[in-house]
Amino acid sequence: MISEFGLIQRYFTRAAPTADLGVGDDAALLRIPEGHQLVVSTDMLVCGRHFFEDVRPEYLGHKCLAVNLSDMAAMGATPRWFTLSLSLPKVDEEWLGAFSQGLFALAEASGTELVGGDTTSGPLNICVQFLGVVPVGQALLRSGARPGDDIWVSGTLGDSALGLVSLREGARLTIAARDHAQRRLETPMPRTELGIALRGLASAAIDVSDGLLADLGHILERSKVGAVIEWEEVPRSAALRECEEDQQRRYALSGGDDYELCFTAPSRHRGFLDALGTTHGCPVTRIGVIQPDEALLVRDRAGQPITLESHGYDHFV
Ligand code: ADP
Ligand code: MG
């Protein structure tokens, strides 16, 4: 039977060349570059709540990092280091090997390093804390949206919600659509480069984790403004377009787990932002405009308001 120390050593200790001190001491030592602020965020994944118990462990390793990288992207931060706190019901080496492989593959792809953590026994629970850096004053906040600013989103919305439904209850979809939707749910790709490129361009930003309307709502609240969204402009994948229109609306406007960026920017940046989407391999789409009065309106093609029962996911309602 492997010990706690052996487990950490075998599965969670890798070289962390940019840290002054990584895994193995009582704490890590990290150096923040001159002229930068430290950006800190945490996201926890709970079994049965955020993922199914039988999810492939390599996907889970990927996702616990991806959701945190998404928060870094939404701040315009360069992600650097992370810690991993794990509560494990039992030591299953096959599971741990696959989990750490998924985790380190994305860590390597994002140029980030695991520098510490905590390991205990208990119900399966994974908590990652991320540390990033941003030049002083250049972080993207929720509070900077101004009337007249365009509202943009990256990629497509609603795929993960469709993936969840297709996993849980099945859905009438082509195999290609089902695979696409489940891939978006299980191995989301954070928009790291885009977030960094938006420094100095976006007036506000957030990552879409609880549904577009809920997350855009946070920007509106913090910025004390409102918005009009044109439903026809909301970017949807070919997979999502296989669904009925009302399902598309539900998934794209209030489904969770998209991990795309929603941001606002003055209209003078339009040309530049369109080009930026292409250079970063992740298209961005203009979906609406910020308004002075504090309301959020979604309009259909005919200009009629669309109403939805729910704006997004909330753990406590
Ligand atoms: P302490 O008892 O001082 O808290 P631990 O035994 O919990 O130390 O951890 C020993 C070292 O291993 C520390 O450097 C800690 O950051 C690291 N560590 C523990 N669990 C993990 C993990 N899951 N991933 C990465 N590093 C870990
Ligand atoms: Mg400890």
Query: Main β-sheet: number of strands, strand sense, barrel status?
Result: 6 strands, mixed
Number of strands: 10
The first-to-last residue Cα distance is 43 Å
The overall pLDDT average reads 94
Residue ranges: pLDDT <50 for 5 or more in a row? none
Query: Fraction of residues in helices?
Result: 25-40%
Which strand order do you get reading across the main beta sheet? 6-8-5-9-7-10
Instruction: Give the helix/strand class.
Output: alpha+beta
Cα radius of gyration in angstroms: 20 Å
Structural description of this entry:
There is one protein chain. This protein has 317 residues and is α+β, with helices and mostly antiparallel strands. It has 9 helices and 10 strands. It has helices at residues 4-12, 57-74, 93-110, 159-168, 175-186, 192-197, 212-223, 245-254, 270-279, and strands spanning 36-46, 78-88, 113-121, 125-135, 150-154, 204-208, 226-230, 260-265, 284-291, 296-299. The strands form 2 sheets. Strands 6-8-5-9-7-10 form a 6-stranded mixed sheet, sandwiched between helices. Strands 1-4-2-3 form a 4-stranded mixed sheet. The site of adenosine-5'-diphosphate (ADP) has 13 residues, from helix 1, strand 2 and strand 3.
Give me the secondary-structure topology:
Layout (H helix, E strand, L loop, with lengths): L3 H9 L23 E11 L10 H18 L3 E11 L4 H18 L2 E9 L3 E11 L14 E5 L4 H10 L6 H12 L5 H6 L6 E5 L3 H12 L2 E5 L14 H10 L5 E6 L4 H10 L4 E8 L4 E4 L18
Adenosine-5'-diphosphate (ADP) binds next to helix 1, strand 2 and strand 3.
